[in-house]
Amino acid sequence: MRPPTASLVVLLLVVAALTVIGLGGIPTAGIPQAVLNEEQQIAADTAQSLRTAIDTEASTVRRTASAYPATSTSTPVTTLKALASARKAVLGSVLLDRHTGTLLAAGGRTVPLAGVDAARTASGAVPPRLVTSGGSPQLLYFAGVTLPAEQEDPDQDYQTPNRPERQWLLVVSEALPSLTAYGDGRTAEVLDASGTALATAVHGNASPAADNSSLSAAAARAAHGSGAHTDASGSLLGAAAGSRRTVAGWAQVASTTGPGDTDHLGLVVLTSHAVPATTTTPDYSRFALEAAGALAGVALLLGLALYFSVQRPLLRLYLSAGRLARGATQDWPTAAAELSRPVPVHGFGELARIGRALDSLRRQLTGESGPQEFPARRGPGYRAFAVVGLLVVGCWAVPMIFLLNRADTATAVPAPVLAAQQARTEIATNRIRQSLDQSYTDLSTAAAGLPGRSRAAQTEVLQHTLADHRQYRSLYLLDRSGGITLRVGGTPLRTRVHVPDGGGITTVNTSGRIPAIAAYTQVRAVKGKSKAAGVVLFGEIDVKALNSILPMPKLGSVWVTDAHEKVLAASVGYEAFQSLPDPGLTRLARSTQSAPGTAGTATSAVHLTSSGPSVDAAAPLAQSGPTARLGWHVVTAEPAAALQIPAVQAEQRTMLAGILALAVGAACLGWLHVVVVRPLRAVATLVERLAGGDRRTVLHPVNHDEIGSVTRSLELIRQALAERDRAARSGHAAGPMRSLRENTLQR
């Protein structure tokens, strides 16, 4: 009896303490933590975009150099012109001898080569380097160029050994990738290791914060203290100006998966935004104390009720049953003293029934009365008492779960958090657009190498393209009728047979298990040379590659939809061409007005779902480029429960306290029912049958506790009564107690 009662009281008091700690620890003044977290994520997203741009450019320079068709007669000037002149982003370029570092050729602006040791770059990929030239920051990209060895001249009269292959080092200088600030009123900066701003971008009415220099220095120190080769990020609070305060986020431009091209640059992205400071917020400390006090009162009330109504009566019944058992197994003079006192009836329900039946058995042992029948209809028992106890706990828990501290959907989410979700959705949209644009650019490069070549050479070009660009799952050429004339890679998923004009991104199926997104471009014809195997080159993009770039930390679920709001790709599980999971998301996507031919604008809203408020945003995929005519959208949804918003935190912790209290009450009272109430009901039925004259049913104790001891005592009483009845039937009524005691000792 004691363990479930003590556990109920102690655990309810623990829940009361957790209620005070949980609700009392919610910050209710100044800038919500959710705003700081969102600014940190925006900085991290911007840093990742910058990192991706640098990594892509470094890979492009290396790939261009490795694909250059050098010959033994290639000169440094012609090689440099072929590698760098066609690239608009290149500011200047040089070609160095990789063994001696001698300058072989130069083009464009002067490339700052201070500290560049060409001999040490003979093996492995060289990461970009940040330099300053003319007061402006630049990035140096490196790539090796290998030329075949010069062959022997067969016309010479004497033989000379073949010269070894030549190793050149291409160095190109480019400006930092363009930086974009997302969200109205936000400023974005790229800082070097010392905190000096290298590039700045503003959006809308943004203006640099008054304490911008101190924020830059603090961000540089924080990034430096986080260690190298990490993608660390954080948030900072700036100075207040009137009712607004600057919130800043910083993030390292470093690889997320180990050593990368940007790890040694020491770049840090700093974003800042002035947000209104919260001045009037509810204080949950008083509510926490009141709720905890009420639960403590419920715990003590139930503990006292169980003690006085169940535990103490059960202990007294246990003593009374033991006394009767001793009286039934001892000699008459001693037994008379034990059996002469009536059995007190304590409590109600099953304990009262057992007490009355025990007193009837006492009278039968003393010969005062015979068997007694008990009424079958009885009043409420301890099972009803346990249910009432659970209802008492529920009276505290149910309002906590369903009624108190409910977050208002319209006002719970601060406006800066909603704006940040929209800004991050635009960042995700830009990332997806860049990926699709790059796929189109890569396909166009491959298509430029097809005209004028044999079918075998065209197949080789496509195979190299497929090997170099993992985002493609299949490359194929179409003729004028839409038939596939040349294919490399997997089986095409296309079901739409069409030969489009121009180039861009499109879908090539409208149903099926996997959405098929493809880049396409025209294959130009060259006069006087063999025709290409087809007129349009298609590259089906692996949807897994597209899905892999959608997840972003703390952005929630991300979907890419077509013009009809059907899902093409997502960061969560989905079926091809299914509708968005919530009608509110569909309406939000349509409200961007991103129909084909229109620019469209990003938008955001808070929707109430079955799991609570959700912070949602949508943006058109592109306003220009290969995807501009599609009318696709990017939609995101983040549950407000995942954000550190005070109103939502209060709702969550209030519900959690109610659930814990209800679970504790149900568990402990259920435990009490199993170990006390149910055995008591069984014992009450058996003792009433025994008092009614049933001497055949053997009473087996099941539990080793008070109820088990009562059962053992009842079994001794049953044996004594059965012995007396047998003695009476055999005519030996004298001394039944003595013979019963002797039989008990023999057993």
* Binned strand content: 15-25%
Residue share in helix: 40-55%
Q: Mean of residue pLDDT?
A: 86
- What is the structural class? alpha+beta
Description:
By secondary structure, the protein is α+β, with helices and mostly antiparallel strands. The protein has 4 domains: 52-149 and 164-174, Beta-Lactamase (2-Layer Sandwich), CATH 3.30.450; 180-276, Beta-Lactamase (2-Layer Sandwich), CATH 3.30.450; 286-402 and 668-746, no CATH class; 417-644, 2-Layer Sandwich (Beta-Lactamase). It has 15 helices and 20 strands. It has helices at residues 2-24, 33-67, 76-84, 212-225, 284-328, 332-339, 349-366, 382-402, 415-448, 455-468, 543-548, 583-590, 646-691, 706-729, 736-746; strands spanning 90-97, 103-108, 129-133, 136-147, 166-175, 186-191, 197-202, 233-241, 244-252, 268-276, 472-478, 484-489, 504-507, 517-522, 536-541, 557-561, 567-570, 603-609, 612-620, 633-639. The strands form 4 sheets. A 5-stranded antiparallel beta sheet has the order 2-1-5-4-3. A 5-stranded antiparallel beta sheet has the order 7-6-10-9-8. A hairpin with a 5-residue loop joins strand 11 (472-478) and strand 12 (484-489). Helix 1 (2-24) packs antiparallel against helix 5 and helix 13 packs parallel to helix 14.
Annotate the secondary structure layout:
Blueprint: H1 2-24, H2 33-67, H3 76-84, E1 90-97, E2 103-108, E3 129-133, E4 136-147, E5 166-175, E6 186-191, E7 197-202, H4 212-225, E8 233-241, E9 244-252, E10 268-276, H5 284-328, H6 332-339, H7 349-366, H8 382-402, H9 415-448, H10 455-468, E11 472-478, E12 484-489, E13 504-507, E14 517-522, E15 536-541, H11 543-548, E16 557-561, E17 567-570, H12 583-590, E18 603-609, E19 612-620, E20 633-639, H13 646-691, H14 706-729, H15 736-746
Antiparallel strand pairs: 1-2, 1-5, 3-4, 4-5, 6-7, 6-10, 8-9, 9-10, 11-12, 11-15, 13-14, 14-15, 16-17, 16-20, 18-19, 19-20
